[in-house]
Known about the structure:
The protein is mainly alpha-helical. About 70% of the residues lie in helices and about 0% in strands. The protein is built from nine helices and no strands. The radius of gyration is 23 Å and the shape is globular. Mean pLDDT is about 85; it is low at about 310-315.
Amino acid sequence: xxxxxxxxxxxxxxxxxxxxxxxxxxxxxxxxxxxxxxxxxxxxxxxxxxxxxxxxxxxxxxxxxxxxxxxxxxxxxxxxxxxxxxxxxxxxxxxxxxxxxxxxxxxxxxxxxxxxxxxxxxxxxxxxxxxxxxxxxxxxxxxxxxxxxxxxxxxxxxxxxxxxxxxxxxxxxxxxxxxxxxxxxxxxxxxxxxxxxxxxxxxxxxxxxxxxxxxxxxxxxxxxxxxxxxxxxxxxxxxxxxxxxxxxxxxxxxxxxxxxxxxxxxxxxxxxxxxxxxxxxxxxxxxxxxxxxxxxxxxxxxxxxxxxxxxxxxx
Length: 315
């Protein structure tokens, strides 16, 4: 057919309507929405638990309630908290990059570095800029929102999901949730000196890491689309994801129910003056932190879009 020829519809021939152009590439919308939700939850956490007197009373009760756990676990928490340092973070960044580069996944190596560095820089900036209200119900008025140690653990867990081969990601998501929850609760217990952080600090740290993870995922999905690739190659088989995703969901739901119940009881009775009330508040805060760790990892595992294909066979 020459240029300028007219296509004549034959009788009975079906005419295919032109496909509408996608405004958002496939695989991009879900992580973008997840990033927006993470940002909103960070703001809500700050507003409810840090800037209101009721929220401050709840977290102060939990901080006091951490004393019993600290008497039993301070040696363990000191060991965990002592691991996190700048050299440790540099080693983790280098290891994540090497794992990705070994698979010739250059864009994912960069994304892992961006998630770890971006999340931890965001936490440091917020810690320096945010100021707790003057009418603070806590005896410790210095700002500790968000937690640096919890950000390190959560960002490492997210980076691992970015760089590891497909079949490793489901079990690593469960391990990442346990790592994030353990480090977060350890900062709430602290060392012999005292508690390092409140639950709101830890929750915000996890959400910051989640925010950066999904921002990186949205960019990677857009790159995959621009390269003309389908999404199917980057997701683990459903059978491989089903059990770990179920474990994360069940643990997250149980932790959320326990945490919400204990914190609701604390909020109704605040200010708390009994040892039992303080212990219930701490238990609720710890359960709430665990719930956030389980659900954020479940989201990362479930909503992971396709990544650009490696230049060689993955590990």
